[in-house]
Design goal:
- The chain is of the alpha+beta class.
- It contains 15 helices and twelve strands.
- It has a six-stranded mixed beta barrel with strand order 2-3-8-5-7-6.
- Strand 2 and strand 3 form a beta hairpin.
- The protein is elongated and about 95 Å long.
Protein backbone atom coordinates (compact mmCIF):
# COMPACT_ATOMS: atom_id res chain seq x y z
CA UNK A 1 0.00 0.00 0.00
CA UNK A 2 1.33 3.45 -0.88
CA UNK A 3 2.54 5.74 1.92
CA UNK A 4 0.12 8.63 1.12
CA UNK A 5 -2.83 6.25 1.46
CA UNK A 6 -1.54 4.90 4.79
CA UNK A 7 -0.82 8.43 6.00
CA UNK A 8 -4.31 9.61 5.10
CA UNK A 9 -5.88 6.62 6.86
CA UNK A 10 -3.80 7.28 9.99
CA UNK A 11 -4.99 10.91 10.05
CA UNK A 12 -8.61 9.83 9.56
CA UNK A 13 -8.35 7.21 12.32
CA UNK A 14 -6.86 9.65 14.85
CA UNK A 15 -9.30 12.50 14.23
CA UNK A 16 -8.89 14.21 17.57
CA UNK A 17 -5.13 14.41 17.20
CA UNK A 18 -5.41 15.50 13.58
CA UNK A 19 -7.93 18.23 14.42
CA UNK A 20 -5.63 19.55 17.16
CA UNK A 21 -2.69 19.73 14.76
CA UNK A 22 -4.79 21.32 12.01
CA UNK A 23 -6.13 23.90 14.47
CA UNK A 24 -2.65 24.89 15.66
CA UNK A 25 -1.43 25.36 12.09
CA UNK A 26 -4.59 27.18 11.01
CA UNK A 27 -4.60 29.59 13.97
CA UNK A 28 -0.95 30.42 13.43
CA UNK A 29 -1.64 31.06 9.73
CA UNK A 30 -4.60 33.35 10.54
CA UNK A 31 -2.55 35.48 12.93
CA UNK A 32 0.31 35.62 10.45
CA UNK A 33 -2.05 36.92 7.75
CA UNK A 34 -3.30 39.66 10.07
CA UNK A 35 0.16 40.65 11.30
CA UNK A 36 1.73 40.83 7.86
CA UNK A 37 -1.36 42.64 6.54
CA UNK A 38 -1.13 45.22 9.34
CA UNK A 39 2.58 45.78 8.73
CA UNK A 40 2.01 46.20 4.98
CA UNK A 41 -0.78 48.71 5.58
CA UNK A 42 1.26 50.72 8.10
CA UNK A 43 4.14 51.12 5.68
CA UNK A 44 1.88 52.18 2.81
CA UNK A 45 -0.20 54.46 5.05
CA UNK A 46 2.76 56.27 6.58
CA UNK A 47 4.29 56.81 3.14
CA UNK A 48 0.97 58.07 1.76
CA UNK A 49 0.38 60.48 4.65
CA UNK A 50 3.90 61.89 4.53
CA UNK A 51 3.72 62.50 0.77
CA UNK A 52 0.21 63.96 1.07
CA UNK A 53 0.34 66.07 4.21
CA UNK A 54 4.00 66.75 4.96
CA UNK A 55 6.53 66.57 2.16
CA UNK A 56 5.12 65.66 -1.25
CA UNK A 57 7.43 63.35 -3.18
CA UNK A 58 10.28 65.89 -2.87
CA UNK A 59 10.51 68.94 -0.61
CA UNK A 60 12.61 72.09 -1.02
CA UNK A 61 13.61 74.18 1.99
CA UNK A 62 16.28 76.68 2.88
CA UNK A 63 19.19 74.60 4.21
CA UNK A 64 19.55 76.92 7.20
CA UNK A 65 15.87 76.48 8.07
CA UNK A 66 16.47 73.09 9.69
CA UNK A 67 18.60 74.58 12.47
CA UNK A 68 16.16 77.42 13.11
CA UNK A 69 12.89 75.51 12.80
CA UNK A 70 12.27 75.59 16.55
CA UNK A 71 13.53 79.17 16.92
CA UNK A 72 12.48 81.62 14.21
CA UNK A 73 11.41 79.44 11.25
CA UNK A 74 10.37 82.50 9.22
CA UNK A 75 13.92 83.84 9.10
CA UNK A 76 15.32 81.37 6.56
CA UNK A 77 12.83 80.93 3.73
CA UNK A 78 12.88 79.86 0.11
CA UNK A 79 13.47 83.06 -1.88
CA UNK A 80 13.03 83.73 -5.61
CA UNK A 81 9.97 81.50 -5.67
CA UNK A 82 9.02 82.19 -9.29
CA UNK A 83 12.51 81.36 -10.60
CA UNK A 84 12.71 78.12 -8.61
CA UNK A 85 9.20 77.15 -9.56
CA UNK A 86 9.84 77.66 -13.27
CA UNK A 87 12.96 75.47 -13.14
CA UNK A 88 11.20 72.71 -11.20
CA UNK A 89 8.04 72.72 -13.31
CA UNK A 90 10.11 72.43 -16.47
CA UNK A 91 11.14 68.93 -15.42
CA UNK A 92 9.09 66.27 -17.28
CA UNK A 93 8.81 64.17 -14.10
CA UNK A 94 7.09 66.98 -12.16
CA UNK A 95 3.28 66.98 -12.04
CA UNK A 96 2.65 69.79 -9.55
CA UNK A 97 4.39 72.21 -7.20
CA UNK A 98 2.83 73.68 -4.06
CA UNK A 99 4.32 76.41 -1.81
CA UNK A 100 3.55 76.35 1.92
CA UNK A 101 4.19 78.30 5.11
CA UNK A 102 3.64 76.66 8.50
CA UNK A 103 2.23 78.89 11.20
CA UNK A 104 2.32 78.66 14.97
CA UNK A 105 -0.58 80.74 16.23
CA UNK A 106 -2.61 81.71 19.25
CA UNK A 107 -6.36 81.97 18.68
CA UNK A 108 -8.48 84.29 20.83
CA UNK A 109 -11.97 82.95 21.50
CA UNK A 110 -14.36 83.88 24.31
CA UNK A 111 -11.59 85.45 26.34
CA UNK A 112 -9.32 82.42 26.03
CA UNK A 113 -6.06 81.92 24.14
CA UNK A 114 -5.87 78.56 22.39
CA UNK A 115 -2.69 77.41 20.57
CA UNK A 116 -3.12 76.04 17.07
CA UNK A 117 -1.14 75.10 13.99
CA UNK A 118 -1.82 76.75 10.68
CA UNK A 119 -0.77 76.17 7.11
CA UNK A 120 -0.71 78.91 4.49
CA UNK A 121 -1.27 77.37 1.07
CA UNK A 122 -2.39 78.10 -2.46
CA UNK A 123 -5.58 76.06 -2.59
CA UNK A 124 -5.40 75.64 -6.36
CA UNK A 125 -1.83 74.31 -6.20
CA UNK A 126 -2.77 71.93 -3.41
CA UNK A 127 -5.17 69.85 -5.50
CA UNK A 128 -2.43 67.29 -6.29
CA UNK A 129 -1.53 67.09 -2.59
CA UNK A 130 -4.40 68.03 -0.27
CA UNK A 131 -7.53 67.86 -2.40
CA UNK A 132 -9.98 69.54 -0.04
CA UNK A 133 -12.97 68.23 -1.96
CA UNK A 134 -12.14 64.85 -0.40
CA UNK A 135 -12.05 66.18 3.15
CA UNK A 136 -14.57 69.03 3.47
CA UNK A 137 -17.63 68.09 5.51
CA UNK A 138 -19.05 71.63 5.49
CA UNK A 139 -18.54 74.72 3.36
CA UNK A 140 -15.91 75.38 0.71
CA UNK A 141 -12.28 76.44 0.40
CA UNK A 142 -11.59 80.18 0.89
CA UNK A 143 -12.44 82.48 -1.99
CA UNK A 144 -9.46 84.04 -3.75
CA UNK A 145 -8.31 87.22 -2.02
CA UNK A 146 -10.56 86.61 1.00
CA UNK A 147 -9.77 86.50 4.72
CA UNK A 148 -11.24 83.03 5.15
CA UNK A 149 -9.89 79.68 6.33
CA UNK A 150 -10.70 75.97 6.54
CA UNK A 151 -10.56 74.45 10.02
CA UNK A 152 -10.15 70.82 10.99
CA UNK A 153 -13.17 69.38 12.76
CA UNK A 154 -11.31 68.79 16.09
CA UNK A 155 -10.09 72.40 16.15
CA UNK A 156 -13.52 73.75 15.23
CA UNK A 157 -15.08 71.69 18.02
CA UNK A 158 -12.47 72.87 20.50
CA UNK A 159 -13.08 76.50 19.57
CA UNK A 160 -16.84 76.07 19.41
CA UNK A 161 -17.05 77.65 15.95
CA UNK A 162 -19.11 76.94 12.88
CA UNK A 163 -19.61 78.16 9.35
CA UNK A 164 -19.40 81.94 8.99
CA UNK A 165 -17.92 82.55 12.45
CA UNK A 166 -14.95 84.89 12.73
CA UNK A 167 -11.92 84.40 14.97
CA UNK A 168 -8.76 86.40 15.63
CA UNK A 169 -5.28 84.89 15.36
CA UNK A 170 -1.99 86.21 16.73
CA UNK A 171 1.07 85.33 14.62
CA UNK A 172 4.79 85.98 14.62
CA UNK A 173 6.27 87.82 11.66
CA UNK A 174 9.58 87.43 9.87
CA UNK A 175 10.80 90.51 11.71
CA UNK A 176 10.18 88.78 15.09
CA UNK A 177 7.25 91.05 15.84
CA UNK A 178 3.59 90.10 16.30
CA UNK A 179 0.63 90.67 14.03
CA UNK A 180 -3.03 89.73 14.16
CA UNK A 181 -5.57 88.68 11.57
CA UNK A 182 -9.27 87.90 11.75
CA UNK A 183 -10.44 84.93 9.69
CA UNK A 184 -13.90 83.80 8.69
CA UNK A 185 -14.67 80.08 8.74
CA UNK A 186 -15.37 79.08 5.12
CA UNK A 187 -15.17 75.32 5.63
CA UNK A 188 -14.69 72.51 8.14
CA UNK A 189 -12.72 69.41 7.14
CA UNK A 190 -12.11 65.89 8.46
CA UNK A 191 -8.70 64.58 7.41
CA UNK A 192 -7.45 61.00 7.25
CA UNK A 193 -4.09 61.79 8.87
CA UNK A 194 -4.08 61.80 12.67
CA UNK A 195 -1.46 64.54 13.07
CA UNK A 196 -2.95 66.98 10.56
CA UNK A 197 -6.45 66.43 11.91
CA UNK A 198 -5.46 67.91 15.28
CA UNK A 199 -5.91 71.65 15.87
CA UNK A 200 -5.04 72.66 12.30
CA UNK A 201 -6.39 75.35 10.00
CA UNK A 202 -5.61 76.33 6.39
CA UNK A 203 -5.53 79.91 5.14
CA UNK A 204 -4.70 81.55 1.78
CA UNK A 205 -0.97 81.86 1.14
CA UNK A 206 -1.03 85.44 -0.17
CA UNK A 207 -2.96 86.62 2.90
CA UNK A 208 -0.57 85.00 5.35
CA UNK A 209 2.50 86.21 3.45
CA UNK A 210 1.23 89.70 3.97
CA UNK A 211 0.44 89.17 7.66
CA UNK A 212 3.79 87.49 8.44
CA UNK A 213 5.77 90.00 6.36
CA UNK A 214 7.39 87.26 4.26
CA UNK A 215 6.80 88.91 0.87
CA UNK A 216 6.86 86.33 -1.93
CA UNK A 217 8.96 83.87 0.07
CA UNK A 218 7.70 80.56 1.40
CA UNK A 219 8.84 78.08 4.01
CA UNK A 220 8.87 75.09 1.68
CA UNK A 221 8.03 73.95 -1.81
CA UNK A 222 6.42 70.54 -2.24
CA UNK A 223 6.85 68.62 -5.49
CA UNK A 224 4.55 65.91 -6.84
CA UNK A 225 6.10 63.67 -9.49
CA UNK A 226 5.04 60.87 -11.81
CA UNK A 227 7.57 58.59 -10.08
CA UNK A 228 6.27 55.90 -7.75
CA UNK A 229 7.05 57.36 -4.33
CA UNK A 230 8.18 53.93 -3.14
CA UNK A 231 11.10 54.23 -5.60
CA UNK A 232 13.41 56.22 -3.31
CA UNK A 233 16.43 55.84 -5.60
CA UNK A 234 14.61 57.47 -8.53
CA UNK A 235 13.42 60.33 -6.31
CA UNK A 236 16.94 60.87 -4.98
CA UNK A 237 18.27 61.09 -8.53
CA UNK A 238 15.59 63.61 -9.47
CA UNK A 239 16.30 65.65 -6.33
CA UNK A 240 19.99 65.72 -7.23
CA UNK A 241 19.20 66.85 -10.79
CA UNK A 242 16.99 69.66 -9.48
CA UNK A 243 19.70 70.69 -7.02
CA UNK A 244 22.21 71.09 -9.85
CA UNK A 245 19.80 73.27 -11.84
CA UNK A 246 18.88 75.63 -8.99
CA UNK A 247 21.03 78.54 -7.79
CA UNK A 248 23.69 77.62 -5.24
CA UNK A 249 22.98 80.67 -3.08
CA UNK A 250 21.15 80.53 -0.77
CA UNK A 251 21.80 76.82 -0.17
CA UNK A 252 18.66 74.73 -0.49
CA UNK A 253 17.78 71.41 1.05
CA UNK A 254 16.12 69.24 -1.61
CA UNK A 255 14.99 65.98 -0.05
CA UNK A 256 12.85 62.99 -1.02
CA UNK A 257 9.89 62.38 1.25
CA UNK A 258 11.65 59.70 3.32
CA UNK A 259 14.11 62.33 4.63
CA UNK A 260 11.48 64.96 5.31
CA UNK A 261 9.63 63.57 8.33
CA UNK A 262 10.95 63.21 11.87
CA UNK A 263 8.68 60.22 12.33
CA UNK A 264 9.93 58.52 9.20
CA UNK A 265 13.48 59.10 10.41
CA UNK A 266 12.58 56.68 13.21
CA UNK A 267 11.05 54.34 10.66
CA UNK A 268 14.07 54.13 8.36
CA UNK A 269 14.82 50.81 9.95
CA UNK A 270 11.23 49.73 9.39
CA UNK A 271 12.09 46.80 7.16
CA UNK A 272 14.62 45.50 9.71
CA UNK A 273 12.18 46.11 12.55
CA UNK A 274 9.34 44.41 10.72
CA UNK A 275 11.68 41.58 9.78
CA UNK A 276 12.60 41.06 13.43
CA UNK A 277 8.94 41.28 14.48
CA UNK A 278 7.98 38.80 11.80
CA UNK A 279 10.82 36.44 12.71
CA UNK A 280 9.85 36.50 16.40
CA UNK A 281 6.22 35.86 15.59
CA UNK A 282 7.06 33.14 13.09
CA UNK A 283 9.26 31.56 15.76
CA UNK A 284 6.37 31.57 18.19
CA UNK A 285 4.04 30.20 15.54
CA UNK A 286 6.59 27.59 14.54
CA UNK A 287 6.94 26.55 18.18
CA UNK A 288 3.22 25.81 18.32
CA UNK A 289 3.39 23.76 15.14
CA UNK A 290 6.61 21.93 16.11
CA UNK A 291 5.39 21.16 19.64
CA UNK A 292 2.12 19.79 18.30
CA UNK A 293 3.94 17.63 15.77
CA UNK A 294 6.44 16.34 18.33
CA UNK A 295 3.65 15.57 20.78
CA UNK A 296 1.78 13.68 18.08
CA UNK A 297 4.81 11.55 17.15
CA UNK A 298 5.80 10.70 20.72
CA UNK A 299 2.25 9.71 21.56
CA UNK A 300 2.56 7.13 18.80
CA UNK A 301 5.66 5.28 19.97
CA UNK A 302 3.71 2.05 20.34
CA UNK A 303 2.43 2.44 16.78
CA UNK A 304 6.01 3.01 15.59
CA UNK A 305 7.08 -0.12 17.44
CA UNK A 306 4.31 -2.12 15.81
CA UNK A 307 5.31 -0.91 12.36
CA UNK A 308 8.94 -1.82 13.09
CA UNK A 309 7.95 -5.25 14.35
CA UNK A 310 6.03 -5.83 11.13
CA UNK A 311 9.20 -5.20 9.16
CA UNK A 312 8.81 -1.57 8.08
CA UNK A 313 12.22 0.04 7.74
CA UNK A 314 13.15 3.13 9.74
CA UNK A 315 13.46 5.26 6.59
CA UNK A 316 9.97 4.27 5.54
CA UNK A 317 8.62 5.14 9.01
CA UNK A 318 10.21 8.60 8.76
CA UNK A 319 8.67 9.13 5.31
CA UNK A 320 5.29 8.02 6.61
CA UNK A 321 5.26 10.58 9.42
CA UNK A 322 6.68 13.21 7.10
CA UNK A 323 3.83 12.54 4.66
CA UNK A 324 1.26 12.82 7.45
CA UNK A 325 2.80 16.10 8.63
CA UNK A 326 2.80 17.39 5.07
CA UNK A 327 -0.91 16.62 4.75
CA UNK A 328 -1.58 18.41 8.05
CA UNK A 329 0.62 21.34 7.09
CA UNK A 330 -0.90 21.85 3.66
CA UNK A 331 -4.53 21.48 4.81
CA UNK A 332 -4.01 23.50 8.00
CA UNK A 333 -2.16 26.28 6.18
CA UNK A 334 -4.79 26.36 3.44
CA UNK A 335 -7.64 26.56 5.94
CA UNK A 336 -5.85 29.18 8.05
CA UNK A 337 -4.83 31.31 5.08
CA UNK A 338 -8.35 31.25 3.65
CA UNK A 339 -9.98 32.03 7.01
CA UNK A 340 -7.40 34.75 7.65
CA UNK A 341 -8.27 36.42 4.36
CA UNK A 342 -12.03 36.11 4.92
CA UNK A 343 -11.75 37.51 8.46
CA UNK A 344 -9.55 40.33 7.16
CA UNK A 345 -12.07 41.52 4.57
CA UNK A 346 -14.20 43.62 7.04
CA UNK A 347 -11.08 45.32 8.41
CA UNK A 348 -9.76 45.86 4.88
CA UNK A 349 -13.04 47.52 3.83
CA UNK A 350 -14.18 49.45 6.91
CA UNK A 351 -11.14 49.71 9.17
CA UNK A 352 -10.98 50.25 12.92
CA UNK A 353 -11.13 53.81 14.31
CA UNK A 354 -8.04 55.08 16.13
CA UNK A 355 -8.02 57.62 18.94
CA UNK A 356 -6.71 60.82 17.36
CA UNK A 357 -5.33 62.27 20.56
CA UNK A 358 -3.43 59.11 21.51
CA UNK A 359 -1.89 58.63 18.06
CA UNK A 360 -1.02 62.33 17.85
CA UNK A 361 0.85 62.12 21.15
CA UNK A 362 2.53 58.94 19.94
CA UNK A 363 3.72 60.92 16.91
CA UNK A 364 2.69 58.44 14.26
CA UNK A 365 1.83 59.68 10.79
CA UNK A 366 -1.04 57.20 10.62
CA UNK A 367 -4.57 57.61 9.39
CA UNK A 368 -7.54 58.00 11.71
CA UNK A 369 -8.69 54.47 10.87
CA UNK A 370 -6.60 51.32 11.02
CA UNK A 371 -6.78 48.91 8.10
CA UNK A 372 -4.87 45.86 6.99
CA UNK A 373 -3.52 45.25 3.52
CA UNK A 374 -3.53 41.61 2.48
CA UNK A 375 -1.85 41.06 -0.87
CA UNK A 376 -1.75 37.79 -2.85
CA UNK A 377 1.95 37.54 -2.11
CA UNK A 378 1.20 37.64 1.62
CA UNK A 379 -1.25 34.76 1.37
CA UNK A 380 1.20 32.69 -0.68
CA UNK A 381 4.02 33.43 1.78
CA UNK A 382 1.94 32.42 4.82
CA UNK A 383 0.69 29.24 3.12
CA UNK A 384 4.17 28.12 2.05
CA UNK A 385 5.77 29.01 5.38
CA UNK A 386 3.20 27.23 7.54
CA UNK A 387 3.20 24.17 5.27
CA UNK A 388 7.00 23.88 5.31
CA UNK A 389 7.29 24.37 9.07
CA UNK A 390 4.66 21.72 9.75
CA UNK A 391 6.31 19.28 7.36
CA UNK A 392 9.94 19.84 8.35
CA UNK A 393 9.19 19.88 12.07
CA UNK A 394 8.20 16.21 11.87
CA UNK A 395 11.47 15.00 10.43
CA UNK A 396 13.83 14.99 13.44
CA UNK A 397 11.38 13.61 16.05
CA UNK A 398 10.14 10.98 13.57
CA UNK A 399 13.69 9.97 12.74
CA UNK A 400 14.60 9.72 16.39
CA UNK A 401 11.49 7.71 17.18
CA UNK A 402 12.09 5.37 14.24
CA UNK A 403 15.45 4.36 15.74
CA UNK A 404 13.84 3.04 18.91
CA UNK A 405 13.85 -0.72 19.03
CA UNK A 406 10.39 -2.22 18.47
CA UNK A 407 10.48 -4.01 21.87
CA UNK A 408 11.20 -0.76 23.73
CA UNK A 409 8.56 1.18 21.77
CA UNK A 410 5.90 -1.47 22.48
CA UNK A 411 6.60 -1.23 26.24
CA UNK A 412 5.68 2.49 26.36
CA UNK A 413 2.20 3.36 27.56
Amino acid sequence: MKLPVIAFRNLSRNRRRSILSLSAIAVTSIVMVFMLGLIAWMKDDIRSNITTYIAGDIRIRNELFVDEEEGNPLEFLVEDLDQIRNIVEARPEVIAVSPRIHLGTAIYRDGKTIPALGMAIDFADEEEFLDFSDFLIEGTVPAEGSSQAVFSRPLADKLGIGMGDRITLLLNTRRRSSNAVTLEVSGIAEFDGVSINQETFFAPLNLMQRITRTGDSVMELLIRTNINNADINALELLAEDIRRELPADPPLQISPWNEASDFWALMRFADITYGIMGAVFFLLGSTVIINTTIMTIYERHREIGTLGAMGMESGTIVRLFFTEATFLGVFGAAIGTLLGYLLAIPVMNTGIPLYDSFMSEFGAELSTRLYILVKPGTLIYVFVFASLIASLSSYLPARRASRIKPVEALRQE
